[in-house]
Amino acid sequence: MLGSDGISDPMPFAGTPEWPFPVHQIGITAIGLHLIDNVALARLGERCAAAGRWEFLFTMAPLRIPRGTGCPVNPVAVL
Predict the structure, then answer these.
(1) Beta strands 57-59 and 76-78: pairing type?
(2) By the 8 A CB rule, do 71 and 65 touch?
(3) How many CA atoms lie within 13 A of 42 on its CB side?
(4) For residue 43, what pLDDT is reported?
(5) Distance between CA atoms of residues 38 and 4, nearest Å
(6) pTM for the model
(7) 20 to 30 Å CA-CA from 78: which of 3, 7, 17, 45?
(8) Which residue in 58, 62, 74 sits closest to 34, CA to CA?
(9) Does the structure show a pLDDT above 90 at 69?
(10) ω before 10 within 30° of 0 (cis)?
(11) Is the dihedral of CA 67, 58, 4, 9 positive or negative?
(12) What is the 3 state secondary structure string of 9-73?
């Protein structure tokens, strides 16, 4: 799994027109990588700093959509 607070592909494109979203195109289709884009991490960082801990249990339950390629999720970090 790869999660980030933006999109996981470089912008602007790296000059390869047939591969505008390489992380998505290769990661998902070739190796089955699960991607989470636009994760709001600021509050998690603040809570970790306040607790003096940087390890946590991460859980997420995506919607089950037959033949779906994405959905909104509600990830949960348990300190």
Answers:
(1) antiparallel
(2) yes
(3) 3
(4) 92
(5) 6
(6) 0.66
(7) 7
(8) 62
(9) no
(10) no
(11) negative
(12) CCCCCCCCCCCCCHHHHHHHHHHCCCEECCCCCHHHHHHHHHHCCCCCEEECCCCCCCCCCCCCC
3 DSSP β-pair partners: 36
Express each pLDDT in 26-57 by its tens digit. Answer: 888 888 888 888 888 899 999 999 999 999 99
In degrees, rounded to 5, the angle at the alpha carbon of residue 17 between the alpha carbons of residues 12 and 23 is 65
- Let me know how long the chain is: 79
Q: How far is residue 42's CA from residue 29's CA, in Å, rounded to a whole number?
A: 30
Asked whether 25 and 19 are in contact (CB, 8 A), the reply is yes
Residue type (1 letter), 78: V
Query: 72 and 37 in contact (C-beta within 8 Å)?
Result: no
> Residue holding tokens 């998505």?
24
